[in-house]
Amino acid sequence: MFYLIYNLLSIILVLPVIAYHLYRSVSRGRAPAFAERFGLVSEKERAAICSRPVIWLHAVSVGESIAARPLLKALRERYPEHAIVVSNTTETGRGIASAFPEKDLCIYFPFDFLPAVRLSLDTIMPCLVVIMETEIWPNFTREAALRNIPVILANGRISDRSFKRYLQFRWFFGPALQRFSKLCMQTDIDRERIIAMGAPLDRAVVAGNLKYDIPFGWVTDDEHIALRKRYAISDNLTVICAGSTHAGEEESVLKAYRELLACTSSKLLLVLVPRHPERADNVAGLLERDGLPYRRYTAMKGRDTEQFRAGDVLLVDVVGELMGVYASSDLVFVGGSLVPAGGHNLLEPASLGVASVFGPHTANFREITALVLQYGAGIQIDNPEELFETFQALISSIELRKVLGQNGLKMMRDQGGSTERHMSIIDSYLKVSTGRVGSAQEN
């Protein structure tokens, strides 16, 4: 009865969903890619996976795609005869995943509209589906189960804010959760929460956080020189990067930057990386209002440009450059944390040995935040007014920045191992010698 009601509603809602995606794509200057979202994959693209068993990994957006990298590398190394398909929901996620060398094909995830799901599964024909974090779609999981395709939830997490909403809609998530073959959760709390939402007790396990398995280590001198050349940054500049910023945060960062320029003898450069590149025009307006000289990364890319001067600003208006910019920086502010956006991934600067600063709003990364503070790998501030003094302390002390960086690398080293725990579960469903899958759950 649930699926009958759900699919009747999906028929009613399909036009509003199309309208929303069309508006969202047009407003951001991107193609809507409706064909793939309705399960259509071109013959040319299908050729990349033809005649091979397929592993399908779904990562909704940027954060999930980055977290999936260690797993993708392990899958490619352990199952070289398999084709790997990566799907995304957002355009920014697709932009990141398209550059992954481990994948054979990158597509948009289908709408959870029954004909779209069926066509997509019949076209891709995966022998295993891995879904990152908390993408739970009733039609997709049911249709996969009907085809005896195991579906594994990887790196699962349930945030404080989301948990209350999920419980209210347990009637919706419960049937879909019953179709998962295994649910690999990050922590004991996440496991308890997904069971409360309706997941089978015996299929929910704790496998740790894949994000700790991203490559980590100091940036070498040669890498540092190459990256600074790429961004036209001279070696005598102290670089502050504000990454993954949201509306309302750039104003605070710029205020602190202006104050620093007025009182420090250090030669500074600010790099701004808005979380959503389509906001670059708005951020540029703030820079023009404050009279700060700036250049957009898209205007520099592929050209020989004059190096930045002290007091300038680099505005990064594309996706995919954040880690490179972090590696070029002396200190980092991680955005989404001065406004109630839930924060962003503190492991990214930590994995490079770069000192980080972040605000109080980190609910989406509560475990990571606690570990960063426990290891002394970053500095948390309570309000925007503390940005100036915190930046000033880090700029004036190379030793403090070095200690924070060392602590971040130690944290990454101590917390790793999640990839192998995930792979041991995946191995139980994929048989290398025969290419056959393990037993699917009962429908």
From the alpha carbons, calculate the radius of gyration and give it in angstroms. Answer: 23 Å
Q: Are there runs of 5+ residues with pLDDT below 50, and where?
A: 432-443
Helix coverage percent: 40-55%
By helix and strand content, what is the structural category?
Answer: alpha/beta
Number of distinct helices = 20
Spell out the CATH superfamily of the largest domain: 3-Deoxy-D-manno-octulosonic-acid transferase, N-terminal domain
How would you sum up the global shape?
A: globular
Biggest β-sheet: strands ordered side by side in the sheet: 3-2-1-4-5-6-7
- Count of β-strands: 14
For the record, the CATH architecture of the largest domain stands as 3-Layer(aba) Sandwich
Whole-number tally of structural domains: 2
The averaged pLDDT comes out at 93
Strand content: 15-25%
CATH class of the largest domain: Alpha Beta
End-to-end Cα distance, whole Å, is 15 Å
How would you sum up the major sheet? 7 strands, parallel
Look up the CATH topology of the largest domain: Rossmann fold
